[in-house]
Structure formats: structure tokens, C-alpha cells
């Protein structure tokens, strides 16, 4: 079984992001970039399935600027077998990425796509679902446990009320939640081996996909600063404030 | 608590655009080294430093290593972090491939080491000391010692220590008294006490290989009668299996100003009949072997100065961006601002940033020169690079560690009153930095080495070659437009003149009035550090300027380099004249006061 794992290059989660002065977006100049943490979980899961003898090949794919190669090399160092970069300088929105992935799926014919449930930069949480819809495949999102047997995936998902378990037929799209696994640290020998693994570069035009944005960003601003706290006289006043000011009761 | 993030962009810049990664990658044996590989390794090491080592830095400091019943327990989290560290292969980065190492160049392992030290200096000392012991066994160990110990030390399964100091033998190792008695079967029994043994005992691994300086019964007095022995904590069978507990025991650990989580042990050898060891190399040549490794060890401690400066800077910068206090000078009705807007806070941050970048540039240039000195096919290039390395090792060690104390102290200052509170974490960097100018040879020892062995001995040849290069860089800066490059050119040219004056004084005086020369040795070391750092910053500014002219990406990074180089020129290179004066004219004031008037 072949597994395709899409990975995205995002601002590192340790970096405190700053909004550009003109409100057009987030400042990414000279900022440390890394693999989206949910995608790292996806790579780890795919590699574990390969180590368990269930998957035969793990292919990592990314779309974006040339520097995304670094992100792909990181996936190769964790244990992916080869990588594909869809290189473009264009701004990519979830639907465009889903279409690009659909084209890659068409070529690669994986039985399973495991992706992060969302990217920590735009938090869209759309690409995996859109890809499943475009392919007409079943999907299981927010996975906290994945088991593959007899051409089906049994996926445990985290939902508001607890855990829900789905059984879906392959091929399918699974998106990862935080508790699915704890990704390993790549070892130094594997980082060196990753350099020798194949990394193919293609582009949206070659895949026949129009990636022109459908959405426009009106404004990006920092969340409002938290105001100072107040001391309440008694429980009654607290309840009153929660009811009438905060409106949470 | 502050999170450390590896300054990978600056590391890449220094490695690739200043220190000559291409030249290092072209050396025989470095076929696998490439720009991409360097990026990948820096990324992953940075991640490990941030996610595993950095979170334990403050807790380790608060909890410290504990001693009880003759054994050391490391701080919470240490054991698991060490397991992950060795499992990821980081202990093997620079070690020889025939024993499982990766054999990567020093330029690369240096940048990786910087991150371990920034993230958690107390932790980093364990693999660092093991690295020293590995080096000693590689160079002088017998085939049997190599096969018994090296693979496991390189994989991190066991650690190593260096046992030099005794209560009466600190900087003066000629006074070592630990004895080694031959047993007639090729082994020896050791008796004596060693102090200040870093990670001399711990619970991270099943075995520890101690390298110990001791005297044979018939050894001559002084430095020529000291031999080196390998003494395992648990005896090792021919098949590599662990045998009986050896008679070396940790009888206490020190309570220190900083690096609390690094156990500094008193080791007793032979209290119960003798600690079994084997001779490393030839008898009576132990100190000589130690000196072979001295460059390596001193460089590594210099890196601690750089690493703690970077950490202190990141900490202070984070606070200065967040802390709102007062209004901006010269702005009416602008409201309260983050303190980074205040000119003196900016000055402090720039002083931290520019010194840290200057130290990094110099250290990496020296690391690259070390790679060339060891592996370049042309013997002339090897000799020339080695002379440069030898000259600069005491500077990287002495200058960077003295700076680190200054930078970490400034970091406390940026935090104001909160900096003095341990919970803030800024004070730890200052406490941790304080040891670096003391161990592995104090600043004065470095300065004596610089003056005697590195400047006077070759008649100033190596240092004059550096001065010529500095002047060339100054001229190059002067050929570029803009006030920043004018300022850099002037400051660098003046500094070169000041250094030359001090060098001439040292060459004139060293043979005739060694006390007068020595009285100015530390100012001389600092002067050379500032000139060498300013030289590298000027080179960085020129490279940045060319990158901007060619329309490279990330222009703000390069613009920042030019501004930072200018700051260094105006604020630090400008100190050269004063330091040179202290070297040339300062001896009288230092030496004339009669001892009873102190």
C-alpha cells in the first residue's frame, strides 16, 4: 500500500508571529519556518504504518516556494521514501492545494492520503476535506487512532462528546489530530540518508491546475489585548457579570 | 520561561558566506557535506535544542544534580533527554566513522554544539567532556582500548570524563600526586583524589570511562612525570560485558554559582584497594596528550561564551519587546511603549547582538580554518591555517567568555528589577557564564599562552598576517559608499594601528621585561578579540552589501548585518586605542605598588 502525505511549510510554532505594519499579512521575513506540526504527525503515522509492514511506500508532497524542499527533506529524514515538490511562487489557498493534490493522487495512485487536520498558519482545516470531495473518496478527519486491515481504515476521531470510531473503505483521506502519535526526532544518520532520497520537482502548470486565488484577504490584525482584571465583591456580583457582561451563563 | 530558538539564519550566513563552507565541503572526506545537508542538520538540531534541552534549562538549574550514598542523581528529565540525544545520533556527529561516528566537519559540529550550549549548557557538558575523552583515546589509545571503549562512547551508550585537577594541582598540573602502580599484568592500580570532575558520576549511562592523570612510581618530578590512564567505573570484559564495580567513587559534589545541573565531582581512586586502569599511550607523556586536546577543549569553552550570549540576548530581546514602560522620548501624546523603544535599551540590545554576532563570526571562521588545517591537501595551506588557529584559540576562549559575562550581565540589566529575580531566568545565564572564563584555563592563562607561544615565539609572524588582512578589509570597506562603511573603515584602520602598536610593544618587551609584557596580557587578548571580531563584522557587512546589490532575497537580514557591523565599529572597535594604551603604558601602574600597600 502506498501512502501520500502532504506537508506544509509554516512559521515555526515557537515563533511569536507579528502582523505587518500595513495589515496585509504576517511578517515572515527572517522568521524561522518549519513543517506544520499536524503534518509531522501525519508523516510519523505513515512511517509507523510502513514500519509495521502495512504500507510499502510513503511519498511526501508539498506545494509552494523552492524552500519547501527543506520541509520535504525533513519528512524524508523522519522516514518518507521519496518526495514531490509542486513549485510555485503563487499564493496557495486550500482549494488550489486540494486540486494540486488531486492531480498528484491521480499520478501516484496511493491507497491512503494522511494529512494534518489543519495548518497552524491559517488554521483553515479544509484541504483534506476538499481533496476527499474532489476524489469522491471517504474521509475521516481528526484521527486520534488509525488501524488498517482488509482494505478498510478504522479511525477513532475526537469529537465534542468523546470518541467516535469510523470504518471507511480505502482509498481514503485521513486527517490527523494532535494525539494520534508523538513524532520522533530525526536521527543524524537518517538526516544524511534523506539527502540521497529522490525529490522530484513539478509545477501547477505541468499538473494542469489553475491555482489563482478565489479569496482575498481584506485585513490582518492582532487580536485585541487582554484588558485588566477586576476584583468582584461577592459571588452574586460574579454571577451577574458572567451573565450580563461576559454573557457566558 | 524563555524558549531558545537556534539562530539558524545567522549560522547559515556565517558558515556559508563568511567562513567558507564551500571550501570545507571540498576537502577530502567531506564529499557528503553540502549546503542542503547543513540546513537539514541545523534545522533538526535546532528543533531538538528548543523542544528537549531548552525546557530543562531552568528546572535543572533550580533542582540541580544531587549526591547521595556515593552516587549522583541528575535533575528531573535529564535521563530521558540524554537517551533521546544519543538515540538521535548527536553524540557521534564529529567522531570517526570507523567507530560509528559521522565524521562531519568541525565547522558544522561547531554550529550544532552552539545550540546545545545555548539551550542547556549544564546538559551540554556531558557530551562535550565525552568528546574530549574520545579524542584522547582516538589519538593515543591502544587497539584494545579503542575496541573496548570507543564505539560505546561515540554512540553515547557510555560517557567519558577528564580527570586532571587535584586540590593542590589546579592551573599548575606539575603538582599532580595521584599514583599508578603497575600490577605486572599490564594493568595499573590508581590511588588518589581528583576534584572538579564534570559528570564524574551520574545516572545517565551504565558505565563511565575516566581518563586520569597520575604518576608512575619511577616517574620524574614535574610535568615530565605524568601519565594518562583509562579507568572505567565498571570493569569491561574482553567481550564488552560489564564486570565488577571499579574502586573509583564520587565522594561529594560541589555547590556552585552556576551550571547547577552539571555534577562537579570529587572522585576518590583506590580507597578500597586500588582503581584498576590501563595506560593510554606512553608513560610520562600524559600532559603532552592533554595539550593536544587543549585547543579543542578551549575552543569548546569559548563556544559556551558565544552560546550563553545568544541565549541571554534572546531572553532580553523577548522582554524588551513585551515590557511596556514609559513613553517614547521626543514623542508627545504617543502613549506607553515597549522598552525596546528607549534609546538605552536599544544600546544594550545592540551591544548584546553585535558582540554575539562578532563572536560567532570569529569562532566559525576559526572552526573552518581548523578543518583546513587538518585536511587540506596542500601542506603550506595546512601550516598557514594552523598558525591562524593557534593564534586565535586563546582569543576565542578568553575574549568570548569574558564577553559572555558582560553580555549576560547586560541581559539582567535590560530586565530591570525583574532581572535580579531568579524566576525570570536572566540571572541564570550570568551565573552559568561566570565559570567559562575560569575553567579550561583562566583568561590570564589564555593571555599568557597568546603572548608567549602565539605572538612572541614566531616573532609576531601570524599576528602580523592578521593585521595585514584587517587592513585589507578596512580598505575594501572604504571603497563602498555610505556612512556605515566610512565608519567601519575608520574604526577598523584605527584599531589595526592600535593592535600593531601593542604587538610591537610585546615583541620588544617579552624577552627583556616579561613582567611588563605579562601585566598587559589580558588587555592585549581583549584588544585582539575586538579587532578580530570587528574584522569579521566588517567582512560580514561587505558580504551583505554585495548580496543587497545583487538583489538577493531576505534583504532585511543583510541590512541588519550592515547596521550591526557599524554598531560594533563605533562601540567596540573604538575601544582598541584604550586597550592598546593599557598594554603599552599600563605596566607601571600594575606593578609599582609595593605589596604592603595593598
TrEMBL record, chain A:
Keywords from the named record: Electron transport, Transport
UniProt keyword Transport present: yes
Any one GO molecular-function label of the UniProt entry: electron transfer activity
Cofactor(s) this protein cannot do without: AMP
Domain of life: Bacteria
Entry annotated with the keyword Transmembrane helix: no
GO biological process: carboxylic acid catabolic process
Domain (Electron transfer flavoprotein alpha/beta-subunit N-terminal) ranges: 23-211
One Pfam short name: ETF
Entry function: The electron transfer flavoprotein serves as a specific electron acceptor for other dehydrogenases. It transfers the electrons to the main respiratory chain via ETF-ubiquinone oxidoreductase (ETF dehydrogenase).
Family from the record: Belongs to the ETF beta-subunit/FixA family.
Assembly, per entry: Heterodimer of an alpha and a beta subunit.
Protein name per Swiss-Prot or TrEMBL: Electron transfer flavoprotein subunit beta
Automatic annotation (TrEMBL), chain B:
Residue ranges annotated for the Acyl-CoA oxidase/dehydrogenase middle domain, each copy included: 162-269
Annotated TM spans: none
Assigned EC number: 1.3.99.41
Origin species: Azoarcus indigens
Keywords attached to this entry: FAD, Flavoprotein, Oxidoreductase
Domain Acetyl-CoA dehydrogenase-like C-terminal, first and last residues per copy: 467-594
Domain Acyl-CoA dehydrogenase/oxidase N-terminal residues, every copy: 40-157
Molecular function per GO: flavin adenine dinucleotide binding; oxidoreductase activity, acting on the CH-CH group of donors
All copies of domain Acyl-CoA dehydrogenase/oxidase C-terminal, residue ranges: 284-450
Catalyses which reaction(s): 3-(methylsulfanyl)propanoyl-CoA + oxidized [electron-transfer flavoprotein] + H(+) = 3-(methylsulfanyl)acryloyl-CoA + reduced [electron-transfer flavoprotein]
PANTHER family hit by this protein: ACYL-COA DEHYDROGENASE, BROAD-SPECIFICITY LINEAR ACYL-COA DEHYDROGENASE FADE5
Family assignment from sequence similarity: Belongs to the acyl-CoA dehydrogenase family.
Pfam assignment, any one: Acyl-CoA_dh_N
Top EC group: oxidoreductase
Protein name: 3-methylmercaptopropionyl-CoA dehydrogenase
Role summary: Involved in the assimilation of dimethylsulphoniopropionate (DMSP), an important compound in the fixation of carbon in marine phytoplankton, by mediating the conversion of 3-(methylthio)propanoyl-CoA (MMPA-CoA) to 3-(methylthio)acryloyl-CoA (MTA-CoA).
SUPFAM superfamilies per the UniProt record, alphabetical: Acyl-CoA dehydrogenase C-terminal domain-like, Acyl-CoA dehydrogenase NM domain-like
Cofactor: FAD
Amino acid at each position: 500500500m502506498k501512502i501520500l502525505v502532504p506537508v506544509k511549510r509554516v512559521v515555526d510554532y515557537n515563533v511569536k508571529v507579528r502582523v505587518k505594519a500595513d495589515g496585509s499579512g504576517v511578517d515572515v521575513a527572517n522568521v524561522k519556518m518549519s513543517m506544520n506540526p499536524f503534518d509531522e504527525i501525519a508523516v510519523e503515522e505513515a512511517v509507523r504504518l510502513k514500519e509495521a509492514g502495512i504500507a510499502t511506500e510513503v511519498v511526501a508532497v508539498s506545494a509552494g516556494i523552492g524552500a519547501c524542499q527543506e520541509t520535504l527533506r525533513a519528512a524524508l529524514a523522519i522516514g518518507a521514501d521519496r518526495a514531490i515538490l509542486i513549485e510555485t511562487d503563487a499564493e496557495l489557498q486550500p482549494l488550489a492545494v486540494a486540486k494540486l493534490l488531486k492531480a498528484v493522487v491521480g499520478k501516484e495512485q496511493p491507497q491512503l492520503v494522511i494529512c494534518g487536520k489543519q495548518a497552524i498558519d491559517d488554521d483553515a482545516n479544509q484541504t483534506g476535506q476538499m481533496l476527499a470531495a474532489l476524489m469522491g473518496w471517504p474521509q475521516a478527519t481528526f484521527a486520534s487512532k488509525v488501524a488498517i486491515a482488509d482494505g478498510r481504515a478504522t479511525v477513532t476521531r475526537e469529537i465534542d462528546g468523546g470518541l467516535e470510531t469510523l470504518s471507511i473503505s480505502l482509498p481514503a483521506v485521513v486527517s490527523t489530530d494532535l494525539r494520534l502519535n508523538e513524532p520522533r526526532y530525526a536521527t543524524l544518520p537518517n538526516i544524511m540518508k534523506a539527502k540521497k532520497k529522490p525529490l522530484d520537482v513539478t509545477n501547477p502548470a505541468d499538473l494542469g491546475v489553475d491555482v489563482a486565488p478565489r479569496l482575498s484577504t481584506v485585513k490582518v490584525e492582532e487580536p485585541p489585548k487582554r484588558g485588566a482584571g477586576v476584583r468582584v465583591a461577592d459571588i452574586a456580583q460574579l454571577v451577574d457579570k458572567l451573565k450580563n457582561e461576559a454573557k457566558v451563563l | 520561561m524563555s524558549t531558545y530558538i537556534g539562530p539558524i539564519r545567522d549560522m547559515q550566513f556565517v558558515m556559508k558566506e563568511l567562513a567558507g563552507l564551500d571550501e570545507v565541503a571540498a576537502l577530502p572526506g567531506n564529499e557528503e557535506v553540502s549546503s542542503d545537508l547543513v540546513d537539514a542538520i541545523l534545522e533538526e538540531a535546532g528543533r531538538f535544542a528548543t523542544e528537549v534541552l531548552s525546557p530543562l534549562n531552568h528546572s535543572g538549574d533550580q533542582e540541580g544534580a544531587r549526591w547521595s550514598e556515593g552516587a549522583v542523581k541528575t535533575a528531573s528529565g535529564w535521563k530521558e533527554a540524554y537517551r533521546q540525544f544519543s538515540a538521535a545520533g548527536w553524540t557521534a556527529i564529529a567522531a570517526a566513522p570507523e567507530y560509528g561516528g559521522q565524521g562531519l566537519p568541525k565547522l558544522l559540529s561547531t554550529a550544532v554544539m552552539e545550540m546545545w550550549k545555548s539551550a542547556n549548557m549544564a546538559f551540554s557538558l556531558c557530551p562535550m567532556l565525552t568528546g574530549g575523552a574520545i579524542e584522547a583515546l582516538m589519538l593515543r589509545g591502544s587497539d584494545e582500548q579503542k575496541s573496548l571503549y570507543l564505539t560505546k562512547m561515540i554512540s553515547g551508550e557510555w560517557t567519558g570524563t577528564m580527570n586532571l585537577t587535584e586540590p593542590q594541582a589546579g592551573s599548575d598540573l606539575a603538582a599532580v600526586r595521584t599514583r599508578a602502580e603497575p600490577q605486572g599484568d599490564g594493568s595499573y592500580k590508581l590511588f588518589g583524589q581528583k576534584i572538579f570532575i564534570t559528570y564524574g558520576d551520574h545516572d545517565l549511562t551504565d558505565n563511565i570511562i575516566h581518563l586520569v592523570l597520575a604518576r608512575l612510581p619511577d616517574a620524574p618530578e614535574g610535568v615530565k612525570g605524568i601519565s594518562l590512564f583509562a579507568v572505567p567505573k565498571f570493569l569491561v570484559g574482553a567481550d564488552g560485558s560489564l564486570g565488577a564495580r571499579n574502586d573509583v567513587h564520587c565522594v561529594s559534589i560541589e555547590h556552585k554559582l552556576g551550571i547547577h545541573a552539571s555534577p562537579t565531582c570529587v572522585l576518590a581512586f583506590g580507597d578500597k584497594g586500588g582503581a584498576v586502569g590501563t595506560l593510554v599511550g606512553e608513560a610520562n607523556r600524559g600532559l603532552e596528550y592533554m595539550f593536544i586536546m587543549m585547543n579543542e577543549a578551549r575552543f569548546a569553552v569559548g563556544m559556551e561564551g558565544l552560546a550563553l550570549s545568544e541565549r541571554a540576548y534572546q531572553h532580553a530581546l523577548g522582554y524588551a519587546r513585551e515590557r511596556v514602560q514609559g513613553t517614547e522620548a521626543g514623542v508627545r501624546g504617543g502613549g506607553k511603549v515597549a522598552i525596546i523603544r528607549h534609546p538605552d535599551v536599544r544600546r544594550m540590545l545592540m551591544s548584546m547582538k553585535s558582540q554575539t554576532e562578532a563572536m560567532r563570526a570569529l569562532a566559525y571562521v576559526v572552526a573552518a580554518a581548523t578543518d583546513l588545517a587538518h585536511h587540506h591537501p596542500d601542506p603550506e595551506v595546512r601550516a598557514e591555517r594552523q598558525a591562524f588557529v593557534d593564534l586565535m584559540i586563546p582569543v576565542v576562549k578568553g575574549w568570548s567568555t569574558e564577553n559572555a559575562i558582560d553580555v549576560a550581565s547586560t541581559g539582567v540589566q535590560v530586565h530591570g528589577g525583574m532581572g535580579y529575580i531568579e524566576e525570570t531566568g536572566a540571572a541564570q545565564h550570568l551565573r552559568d557564564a561566570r565559570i567559562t572564563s575560569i575553567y579550561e584555563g583562566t583568561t590570564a592563562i589564555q593571555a599568557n599562552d597568546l603572548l608567549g607561544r602565539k605572538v612572541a615565539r614566531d616573532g609576531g609572524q601570524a599576528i602580523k598576517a592578521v593585521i595585514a588582512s584587517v587592513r585589507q578589509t578596512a580598505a575594501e570597506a572604504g571603497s563602498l559608499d555610505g556612512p556605515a562603511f566610512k565608519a567601519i573603515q575608520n574604526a577598523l584602520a584605527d584599531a589595526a594601528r592600535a593592535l600593531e602598536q601593542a604587538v610591537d610593544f610585546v615583541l620588544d618587551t617579552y624577552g627583556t621585561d616579561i613582567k611588563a609584557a605579562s601585566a598587559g596580557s589580558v588587555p592585549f587578548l581583549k584588544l585582539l578579540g575586538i579587532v578580530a571580531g570587528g574584522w569579521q563584522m566588517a567582512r560580514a557587512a561587505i558580504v551583505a552589501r554585495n548580496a543587497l546589490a545583487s538583489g538577493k532575497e531576505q534583504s532585511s537580514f543583510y541590512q541588519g548585518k550592515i547596521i550591526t557591523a557599524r554598531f560594533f565599529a563605533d562601540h567596540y572597535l573604538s575601544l582598541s586605542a584604550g586597550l592598546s594604551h593599557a598594554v603599552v603604558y599600563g605596566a607601571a601602574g600594575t606593578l609599582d605598588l609595593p605589596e604592603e600597600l595593598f
